[in-house]
Amino acid sequence: MSNGVHEIEDAKLLFVFGYNGADSHPIVARRIVRAKRKGAQIICVDPRRIETARIADLHLQLKNGSNLALVNAIAHVIIEEGLTDDKFIAEHSHGFDEFKDLCQKYSPEAVSEITQIHPDDIRKAARMYATSGQSMILYGMGVCQFAQAVNVVKGLANLAIMTGNFGRWGVGIGPVRGQNNVQGACDMGALPNAYPGYQNVTVPEIQAKFEKAWGVPLSNKVGIPLTQVPHYVLHEPPEKKIRAYYVFGEDPAQSDPDLAEVRESLESLELVILQDIFMNRTGQYADVVLPSTGWNEHDGVYSCCDRGFQRIRKVIEPPADADVLTDWEIISRISTAMGYPMKYHNTEEIWNEVIALCPSFVGATYEKLEKYGNIQWPCRSTDMSDRGTSFLHKDGKFANPDGKAKFSSIDWQPPTELENSEYPLIFSTFREVGHYSARTMTGNCRLLRNLEDEPGWIWMHPDLCQELGVKHGELVKAISKRGFCLARCLPTDRVKKQAVYMSYQWWVGACNELTIAALDPISNTPEYKYCACRVEKIKNQLWAEKYVREEYAKIRQSMGIDNKKGGKAA
Ligand SMILES: Nc1nc2c(c(=O)[nH]1)N[C@H]1C(S)=C(S)[C@@H](COP(=O)(O)OP(=O)(O)OC[C@H]3O[C@@H](n4cnc5c(=O)[nH]c(N)nc54)[C@H](O)[C@@H]3O)O[C@H]1N2
Ligand SMILES: Nc1nc2c(c(=O)[nH]1)N[C@H]1C(S)=C(S)[C@@H](COP(=O)(O)OP(=O)(O)OC[C@H]3O[C@@H](n4cnc5c(=O)[nH]c(N)nc54)[C@H](O)[C@@H]3O)O[C@H]1N2
Ligand SMILES: [Mo]
Q1: 21, 8 in Cβ contact below 8 A?
Q2: To 5 degrees, how large is the angle CA 293–CA 310–CA 333?
Q3: Which bound ligand lies closest to the C-alpha atom of 281?
Q4: Whose CA is nearest to atom 26 of ligand 1?
């Protein structure tokens, strides 16, 4: 994020784009509510009428997959009505003329069919965003989970640059990232192309620095992104083929798209290692399982989505009979066994090595984390007075070599698999408030299972339910070209008739049987938010209920969850 989460409540306008804070991040959502109480206006861009839409001044209920057409049209209006910040553009950016040319064809009228939004509403949104004086964009998976995703982020950045909404308190762009520590995973270099601190593996000086620090030769080749693993297992020649897969804090057999393909690749791997705090769906394919401690059983540092480092502390001992180690101890032992001794005594030693090697983290010492609770990078000095950086791009200085922001001129591109006569509906996926991602953690919790359990719901417009003759709570079959799953019908006018939605937490109702592995070429994130499907009524509901119960019991058994203990069945 270019700004701090705590700044959200001071924005004068929040442009919430494909982000459902109320379910995904209730603590961040409180800031949105507070901003509203302090008088901020809210624009919500979401194909569903989510909670943010309910409190918004304007809800643009766009057609799924039309993000960049809408964003470019908003830019068109800002230019047309002379609402640009010309001084900021002149002093702190380049590429505006080309962008202006591109925007010409994106009049609100020209995109109204693609976006399904009335031109007046696009004009209204553009005026609100450009004139509030202090506008902040928050975006989420409704932007990222498309094959055209990074380009939409660039489009949103165009809006912020052209209106001068960067480099001050309470403005900017916030990708409100997913898990508590997904930012940390990237900060620490769990990426195919970077060492910790976003230092690129292809830069010779950086390679030399890490070789010196670690005392071994290192590769300058970019690795393989997670979502391309099936391709490398199944379709590459032997010399390039992936043969072993060390899966650590991830459940690809549940959370990756096109599960049939994922299963095929897991089955054909020679070695699968799983390092996890629970058995998960991928565990079924594992040759070796390395059990590790959970978040409350070890120390560490998390990074929040706004670049803020925070310490976590061990609060309980793992059960005496559990044969577990912390993740860092497991990694150290494996490394030592493979011939590279890693001898750390505690997490502070590891952290000190990290910050010493990362110029933008240098000042985030344990001492400061202890004293201030939170240090946002960049923090380049160990001096106690340097408390890090709440917002980026102060005084219009950007991270490009010339210090200027760059406009990107990019056309909208439709999603990969469109509705057709065989699969006439849009299939989209999101998350459930009471359950977490692959559901290993919350699925092991009886209280949460009692609130909501398998096989989960499929959101359908009441007119669609009527057309298909299905009622609230009935099991239906959702089918795409790649696979199917069962789910309970949830009639709701929060969605349009053209699209149905499922959350991806369910094991029996596994929506990733349907999703498509179409990847954004830059981020490699799959198009989880769009593929074509159809929904079928199931005549024999008794059979379907029995099927769900039996499948659930089988899966729980394979994951070692006691079927007799545990909460109510599906
Ligand atoms: N309770 C709970 N909280 C979680 C998680 C969980 O599993 N459970 N998961 C965590 C993780 S890993 C993440 S990444 C975050 C994600 O949190 P969010 O970013 O909120 O993710 P989603 O709910 O998947 O999608 C956000 C919104 O995008 C909308 N959307 C769909 N298609 C489009 C489109 O074409 N355009 C636009 N503008 N919007 C669209 C959806 O309707 C949805 O409301 O949540 C985190 N928080
Ligand atoms: N259809 C669809 N699919 C999606 C999404 C979607 O919106 N729609 N969202 C995608 C997104 S944004 C994400 S982030 C992924 C998330 O998907 P995953 O990352 O696969 O799921 P998680 O449940 O977050 O965690 C994975 C595993 O980490 C384990 N774990 C938890 N704590 C620890 C720990 O301290 N150490 C170790 N070693 N393991 C631990 C959990 O038990 C779990 O088995 O799903 C993606 N899949
Ligand atoms: Mo995520």
Answers
A1: no
A2: 35
A3: 2
A4: 19
Residue 65 and residue 15 share a domain: yes
Percentage of residues in the chain having pLDDT higher than 90: 94
Between CA 438 and CA 444 the distance in angstroms is 11
Q: Confirm or reject: Cβ of 366 under 6 Å from ligand 2.
A: no
List the structure tokens of 223.
């690795």
Distance of CA 438 to the CA centre of its chain: 13
Strand partners for 406: 94
Residue 412 makes CB contacts below 8 A (sequence gap 6+) with: 66, 67, 68, 69, 72, 111, 114, 148
| Rg, Å, the chain Cα set | 24
282 close to ligand 2 (CB < 6 Angstrom): no
Q: How confident is the model at residue 563 (pLDDT cuts 50, 70, 90)?
A: low
Please, are residues 122 and 109 in contact by the beta-carbon 8 Å criterion? no
pLDDT digits (tens, 9 = 90+) for 36-57: 999 999 999 999 999 999 999 9
Q: Residue 570's pLDDT band (boundaries 50, 70, 90)? A: very low
How far is it, in rounded angstroms, from Cα 472 to Cα 107? 41
Q: How far is the CA of 348 from the centre of ligand 1 (A)?
A: 34
Residue 259 CA to ligand 2 centre (angstroms): 15
DSSP state of 526: B
Residue 507 pLDDT class (50, 70, 90 cuts): very high
Write the DSSP symbol of residue 444: T
- The closest-lying atom of ligand 1 relative to the alpha carbon of residue 64 is 35
Same domain, residue pair 240 and 297: yes
pLDDT digit string, tens, across residues 250-282: 999 999 999 999 999 999 999 999 999 999 999
* Residue-level length of the chain: 570
Q: Are residues 30 and 159 in the same domain?
A: yes
Query: Is the CB of residue 285 less than 8 Å from the CB of residue 252?
Result: no
- Residue 260: which domain range? 182-378
User: Pairing mode, if any, of strands 135-139 and 13-17?
Assistant: parallel
pLDDT tens, 449-496? Answer: 899 999 999 999 999 999 999 999 999 999 999 999 999 999 999 999
Helix (H) or strand (E) holding 499: strand 499-503
Looking at the structure, do residues 168 and 188 belong to the same domain, yes or no?
Answer: no
Q: Is 515 in the pocket of ligand 2 (CB under 6 A)?
A: yes
What is the widest separation between alpha-carbon atoms in the chain? 70
Q: How far is the CA of 515 from the centre of ligand 2 (A)?
A: 16
Which of 378, 412, 437 terminates a domain? The answer is 378
d(Cα 390, Cα 372) in Å, to the nearest integer?
Answer: 13
Write down which residue in 153, 176, 199 finishes a domain. 176
Q: Which CATH number do you get for residue 107?
A: 3.40.228.10
- For residues 515, 519, 520, 526, the Cα torsion angle rounded to the nearest 10 degrees is 40
Query: Do 159 and 291 belong together in one domain?
Result: no
Ligand 2 within 6 A of CB of 251: yes
- State the total domains in the chain: 3
